[in-house]
Queue: 2 jobs
Job 1
Amino acid sequence: MSKPYVIGIDMGGTNTAFGIVDARGTVIASSSIKTAKHSDINDYIDELFVEANRLMVANDAVDKIHGIGVGAPNANYFTGIIEEGVNLPWPTPIPLADLLSAKFGIPVAITNDANAAAIGEMTYGAARGLKDFIMITLGTGVGSGIVINGQMVYGHDGFAGELGHVIVKRNNGRICGCGRTGCLEAYCSATGVARTAREFLEIRSDDSLLRNLEVDTITSKDVYDAAVQGDKLAKEIFEYTGKILGEALADFVAFSSPEAFILFGGLTKSGDLIMKPVKNALDKNILPIYRGKVKLLLSELKESDAAVLGASALGWEVKNI
Amino acid sequence: MSKPYVIGIDMGGTNTAFGIVDARGTVIASSSIKTAKHSDINDYIDELFVEANRLMVANDAVDKIHGIGVGAPNANYFTGIIEEGVNLPWPTPIPLADLLSAKFGIPVAITNDANAAAIGEMTYGAARGLKDFIMITLGTGVGSGIVINGQMVYGHDGFAGELGHVIVKRNNGRICGCGRTGCLEAYCSATGVARTAREFLEIRSDDSLLRNLEVDTITSKDVYDAAVQGDKLAKEIFEYTGKILGEALADFVAFSSPEAFILFGGLTKSGDLIMKPVKNALDKNILPIYRGKVKLLLSELKESDAAVLGASALGWEVKNI
């Protein structure tokens, strides 16, 4: 008999959230542990198992888990390994899939957060029924997950879909966390919006509610709050951000001609403030052959559940032997 | 018994080349007709059939054709239709696949030239054994064909892979044939090289062999000839062109993480003059996670045969009922 549940694990540098999910995308039960608490990866795996097992027992889900899906930074779907360059308390590479499947006795698949989000939208959310779409996550950074012909694009090495690191300012661009300059992420993430605010406030001299704040502490939320109150400079920050994102999306269309973009993350809560300039720039910059064909959609997953749901969706794809 | 041959048809605005090809990529016989001669598409189809049939009879290939593949401008793989915006003597849309299969009694698949080139390289050329690669054709324009996980990327509408129209100069870019400005094609095609030559000659004052030519008649071949003779300005034109292309390729890697780029077309004949700056810019601009993983290859198909071979490769993919 096929097993009715999957476990989704969203592994971040600080916290690890996890939950038991059914085929409709209902989170039956969820919990979290502190990632950073354990200096030994094995202690972390042990605590994760104890806590997840407690959930399984309490919800009559023992022996009913089809697979475990994990969203984690730099997680390679092909190898099951977390590669270097991540903010985790353990040395890399980390053979995460093997560690977890050995402990749980359940098959495990891993990928990065944005890919997990894309699979989540395809399984339970806004991308149900879509075979060609691009997920863009606008959080602290800018992530992406690309689906072509119904399949997640992993690339030859498992690391495809780093659209946050496409160069949008070729000259004199902002320094990015990746070590290069001018990346999309340096402009269109929450951090990017805050940086734009600082730049605008320094370069310009017009009034703004944002001038009442300590400039180094300004967040994208502050910019949103000011914009909602009608602050002109704050609104122009969103226009600037949305224009850059829309121009980038127009280029992405020339690659895989997706039916839709699905946007997710904190910045999308700014609604029309950001979405209108994104749509305008996309429409204005798109190659004529694609005009009017590409939808701009918002994630349909509840933000508090989305990461666990996305990871869990990958759990349906593992091979159960 | 499976049929041993395919027919490849390369349909251009002026000429249509076609040939009978075997499974190893040998062109058994080939010929061509004038596309522009016929004001009625049916007359064109008739002549194409008569000529192709003559080849089939002469080479004992009647009833031995598995399928017909066509490379044609704006040809949609999904619908079999040539869409608007092409330089052909007939009104669009043109139901080319239906017209040909009705006439020949053989299944027909069509796609654009660059996609056909990619399938050709995968079947007979430099991409044999590669599952993830991007074909870039550098001719009068810049075309592309993207293969992910062994499958041609057509996108939701059949028109994916227009990487020649990714924007490489966001501000003050050159006008492109597509009606927008700053496209890769406006810089890295043969025409783009000639435009760069004109720009350099106008803006700069240093000596160059190119100054002996009528400026409006300069071609990329002239630039090549001058560069081979050691002309500094001509060499810098290739460096400028290669840098822009390499920067664009680095962005493409962030999309699908290909194992290789396959370059094809007139410009690649300039060898190291263009390939060195492409490689330098690719290496310098690539996201660290992909560094050292992506090959830069040249097409292995003979240029005179490549278009027909590429189209023919699509002929193996048609469903024979």
Job 2
Amino acid sequence: MGHMIEILPGFREFYPEACFRRNYLFQTVRQVCQNFCFQEYDAPILEPLELYTEKSGPEIATQLFNFTDRGGRAVAMRPEMTPAVARMIGSKINSLKRPLKWFSIGENFRYERPQKGRLRSFYQFNIDIFDEPSVSAEAEILSAAITILTTFGLTKADFHVRLSDRLLWGFFLESLGVTAEAIPQVLSIVDRAGKERVEVLQEQLLAVTALPNAWDKIQAFQNIRTVEALRTFLSSSNPAIQERLETLEVLLKRIEHMGLRDFITLDFGIVRGLAYYTGFVFEIFERSGQSRAIAGGGRYDQLIEKFGYPSTPAVGLAFGDVTLQNILSDHNLLPTLTANCDVFVIFDKNSEAQAMHDVIALRQRGRRVDYTLKTLNLEKQFKQAAKAHWVVRYENDHILLRNVAEKSEAVTTRNELFQMVPGEGVEPSLP
Amino acid sequence: MGHMIEILPGFREFYPEACFRRNYLFQTVRQVCQNFCFQEYDAPILEPLELYTEKSGPEIATQLFNFTDRGGRAVAMRPEMTPAVARMIGSKINSLKRPLKWFSIGENFRYERPQKGRLRSFYQFNIDIFDEPSVSAEAEILSAAITILTTFGLTKADFHVRLSDRLLWGFFLESLGVTAEAIPQVLSIVDRAGKERVEVLQEQLLAVTALPNAWDKIQAFQNIRTVEALRTFLSSSNPAIQERLETLEVLLKRIEHMGLRDFITLDFGIVRGLAYYTGFVFEIFERSGQSRAIAGGGRYDQLIEKFGYPSTPAVGLAFGDVTLQNILSDHNLLPTLTANCDVFVIFDKNSEAQAMHDVIALRQRGRRVDYTLKTLNLEKQFKQAAKAHWVVRYENDHILLRNVAEKSEAVTTRNELFQMVPGEGVEPSLP
């Protein structure tokens, strides 16, 4: 007798019901991405540690499952897909047909305190476009993300995309008098809003900028919701700012043409913590503001170059499965696993040979068919058959086909039975 | 500029073409398992190390990716699914409807020298039945495994199941005069046939059994191919042996009824290395004998008990994706990734608004739709459109629908366009 060994904290077992829901998420995301003509890829779950420290700095290692493997290599379980896809794209950029529209469904791992919406193992759905510098790429990414959520049954009353721009953030902070070197620090302080006390953030901001009015100005900037208000607020003749405002308008116009403008909120409350974003950034939230971000992303034009490959523009977004599943559950939008059986075959000793033949033949023709593995009397077999749509049973030389819902039964033939093939449109001649 | 960071040896990147083939394997296995009314489950990729050492002994750790996590836990990346599923079943055995027919598609990890057919990361397809002691479970597992391979297009000329039995092995070795304690050692020597020199194995066998004729007797036993020959060979009145032979006949008869007898070869060359098998064991091989085993498994009635849970009979089988994919590739049975686009939409500045609306609307209705992200002239757009089945373009107030293969074009309406929904059987009125 051994002893019971529990699963690790922050990891999940997927019993059939949970696995069905997880696969429903995967399959819906996959279907929408394919409709948007994105191509699926995948990458290793274990990588050299430096793939992650290179992009995010050595401090990321404190959140990783990392170790030294038997060959003496410093390795880490994947905390996110982006560095790996950057390598895949970068190393073959000249042989791949561009622009590239790619998506992935992959498991990631982070050593964090498990809490609602955050586990140590989670799935992420990544959608990226490589080698397209224009905002048509941002529009394509955002429309795919919105369509994923609406396909799950969420509406514009339920969620919105908060759209921001690191370039406009930069112009704004410059106009305040923040030095170029201080800008990343300021953005990092802004990004911690809601996670730390306001007084602490205000103090840090003052220390970094030496500007007593910076906090109030940032509040005002973050309250802007229209391009017009933004133009007035920045009130600059700097042609770079004017050009960027026009680019923002082009993006919003395209999203409007797509019929999705109501899903977008201009909102400089969004900054995105990671330093590698170079332009528009976005996060998707429930409008109720209850939950963590459902998805987040932005443009990262310098990352592939950073890994030593040819400079390649990139924009992308990622969903986490835990938050997404929580929200769909709150909205009663998750399906439940019902009968997993079309046909139940009932037999006795005399009909066993024919029954076994027909079970396999029906399965080979695409029907989901079950029968009892134990030798049971007819009554008990009928009880088990209740979960199926049809019941087949053998009586003398006849095959009887029963419609369980309608409680009707009629004689059929093997030929008719074998025509019960889904997808070919030939339904059995039911009673 | 950073430097390029390679993937780890024995791991794989899945570019879209490779990912498509991998997913084709997954989807086909999933479909067949569902037709057999097996339910999908999954379990963590990282587990307490002792989950694996408990079952297979501490020596397994030399083949693992194992380490100590930040919380001081001895953990290991999953080398196989069986211990986890034994825990899942065992810990909920009383609340689960039995017998249980479960399958999984999961990634596993082993620190081994990468070679043909063996990588450090690989996928395994596990099919198991829990709480069914009769051989109807073995027949169900074997028929599912055979149907998976025939669904991929392999035939009985390509592969066969080599069926063996650890109980009959035990009876046979007893009859030779091998002591009960020596039987596991003998089986382990037999299992290494083909991996070590015959002389070495013969010496080891002599050392363990002290029987000079054991080697020749074992050869003769392994050459038996029929139950009749087996009965003659064992020529015993031991009722336990007679009963076991009858059970073997029941299993073969059921498989015959299923129409699958030609796929089975009785073959005591199969032993299965793992000590936890308690009855019938099987491996699937190409008939050419070229490759590694495509799949392997057997009955393991004592494993769940070993983990401290209620005693639960179990029988299962696992496929590895690497060998399977190699064989399908050798037989030209792998699909290639072709056009991933149904409709290509061509537009200019004047029609952009309408085009963007229709692109999203068609995608939301389930069509795979693409367009150029760059602003290109019509000629270049047409060139990109070649990969689609249909091309939609806008000219004045008209929508023109082009059948790419037939090089024909006709005016259509938005309504007709939106009826191009797959699965509903409404095809567009093509020219």
